Fold this protein.
Amino acid sequence: MPPSPLPPSVRTVRFRLRVEAALALSLSLLFALCAPLRAAERPNVLWITAEDMSLTLGCYGDAYAKTPVLDALAKESVRYTAAFAAAPVCSPSRSTLITGMWAPSLGTSQMRSTFPLPPEVHGFPSYLRETGYFATNQVKTDYNTSDEPRLVAESWDDSSATADWRAAERAAGQPFFSVINLMTTHQSRTMVWTDAEFRSEIQSRLEPSQIHDPAAAPVPPYYPDTEPVRRGLARFYDCVAAMDAEVGAILSKLEEDGLADDTIVFFYSDHGSGMPRHKRLLHDSGLQVPLLVRFPEKFRHLAPVAPGETVDRLVTFADLPPTVLSLAGVPIPEFVQGQAFLGPEAGDEAEFVYGFRDRVDEVFDLARSVRSSDYLYIRNHMPHLSWGQRSVYSDLGEIQREMFRYAEENADALTGPQRAYLGPTRPPEEFYDVAADPMQLHNLLDGGLSPEQSAALEAHRAAYAGMREELLDLAFVPEPILVDFVIEEEQTPRDMALGRSDHRPDLHAAWAAADLVGKGSREELLALARDGDPAVRYWGLIGLRHAYHRDEALLEELYDSMDDISATVRIEAAAWMAEVSDRHRDEAVQVLGRELVADHWWVALRACRAVEMLGIKARALLPVMETLYARHRHAGGDGSLYLAFSAGAFLQAMGMPTEPWDFGPGS
């Protein structure tokens, strides 16, 4: 689905940036003059990417998986044991993959972002093309920016459903970089399609011996052990088995063309599996991915270890673009933030890798992670919200619905790991020993820390602050506020963060305010809520809402926040007021009702989600939500889709009829 359009003034900025980008790209042709390797010495590179898949392969020790092709590939490859996606969802991760820059540093960390990129930031395959490579992409782009058309045009000789190295336009002997995206393990197939669609489209491709028995499915401790859960797990593994066969067909095609001996093959997934408590979360189940790299004999000198051996080096998606450029002998552009881990430009291993979760579809959040070889640190800046927030697309899956049903009927009997995912709130910080607790079931902060663990916690906290500063993480400025800056300054978010505009968001103030959530005193948080910066006021309200949720006297002090000049602040204040204050609920609901008809979807969606979560307390807005739903249910664009998701969920909760969603193969 293409990004939704921004207002005309932002589209003007985007057009200007595309013109400037074209000029910058033409100047970079000098790369062709300095390519250090002759064509015959340059490897082809093939990326095979699977969607939504964790380490559910036999070669990673999963005994339930049936993956003979990938297990055989692993014996011929270097197998990475500590590879991580940038985000636990697709489009922000793909923004990082195509540029080599962390999406939060570009303003593209929200799901289906519409922010433009600086003109000097290009799709990394464009640098391969300039030095003689033929570049193809089959077929998914989803780069999470309004500049996606520019990235596609400059990055790929062919980006289509059939694009690969066999294209007629590729010259004989021309080195290639090809990406083939396999959708078979995507959440749509594993959870969202009906059982009949899954059996027809996926399971029918398997032999009886390849179909997984639900009774034998490994049920993780954060799931209830019920028949629907086991069926969902077996279905996911069936999708993995079908994907495994697709990988085999691609590798056979490479062999048939006599290119296997000249091609370095990467296999990885775009983030963790699409199952509950995996996709969208910052634990290893959401971020850790398989990564296999096969080096043919002639390029084996580029491999860090022998075929079949493992590498424990921390690797993340920002590192993949510079790594491909390094293997191809192409200079790495200055804007790239990742570190090559193979080839002549390979650098030292990073001690920590970053992870991020922001808005996904209609679900708002902001959390960050820092992963080292020994520990995982997670900072939840919106701890008043559950890890397992309701979300229309995910809730179409039987396994997700079953987990919510089980939690509602067995609230007092939930285990700790189940409550950590399905409970109404979460802690501001989580810290895990990943060797002793590979599933991250036991937050070390729930008990006493050893001196070693205390020192490690402080090191990870410091690493988080340092990495956020280095990247200039923009997500702490809420989307509507950041859009206002883009419109007023006619600059990209990244350019403003770098000080290239007269007026820019104060990132340091926003970070400092967000850091007080779960930690600041009442006085400190109240001071934030009265600050002159709307992003700071927003974080002040979040901190107060978390720490003093039921304090009606505090809400009286914050009454005027419902009339704030910033829509983001007004909505947050009104949502909290409507939930808690019997005295001011009607006024607060009216504030939310006015924001439901805002001109821009990124404002209206915040109000809509707040109304959805209020449920019966916002019943007075039923007519407005019916109108909103009717307007957006069949309208185009991501904004309309998310508004229809949220408005429809509210209407269903109110017992009103809605049209079922269909994301099946024919939709």
